[in-house]
């Protein structure tokens, strides 16, 4: 695939913010990151896994600085407690449905054990990071159909170029009454005459029908859909090559909420909204012969650039997820229309 920053939303003449996208306008504009999907569509199933691989080395031995921000905590994620305490990421990130989290945990643990047979009770365990959205409207979530093999397939499929829309963990989800999905975007940042990147990948499964606000002010609403409670979820993964502390990454992850608010979201009571951020700038060794490790990190006075990038990429990634997702029929009589169809007709 030839790199292009013409995302689905930009192809419809909609621009989110003022910052410049990266070459692909994807999270993989941050060097070393790859993304893969495993999509399961079978009978009443509309589900899957999406894998984000933060670097191509041994992530357990060479960890990355990371943090998370719980915008609204109606969720069943794994691994966030240790990330919060230690400020590091040591496995790929898996996104899936609510009842697929356990299989994702198993896949990541066994992956790290294969790569690092020295892991045992004396030398430490491994902290898998798995996050979820409930795809139970379009998919038969109670079938608990996803397997460890499905999670592994998403990890194996990871590459710099990947699909957006109704794929992987985005297959069966909804957003503002339309079809939701997986979306991504990136922004470039200039610091000390160097170009850095912040990218976002979202699993967009939130928002009430009628609440969506486009960048041009229009408010699309699915035809004939009654008012409903806000009971969805959204996972926002932010990645950057700017050197940062975990405290700074938490502040940036929190600003993903600004991107959701631009879209018309208010983080409802039943919505699980989580921002997760990591930096690829430095690798933190699992074992070190030195007592002290020297690292650069960005001066706080420049952090507004990353706050703005977090808001813009989150907003654009959600819209990309929706526009890239065609209308879908699911289990029973369930149906979600496509935002792309609405845009083409209005």
From TrEMBL:
The identity of this protein, by name, is: L-aminopeptidase/D-esterase
Question: Which superkingdom is the protein from?
Answer: Bacteria
Pfam family for this entry, one: Peptidase_S58
Q: Which organism is it from?
A: Roseibium alexandrii (strain DSM 17067 / NCIMB 14079 / DFL-11)
Which GO molecular-function terms appear in the entry? aminopeptidase activity
Q: Which family does it belong to?
A: Belongs to the peptidase S58 family.
Keywords associated with the record: Aminopeptidase, Hydrolase, Protease
Q: What is its EC number?
A: 3.4.11.19
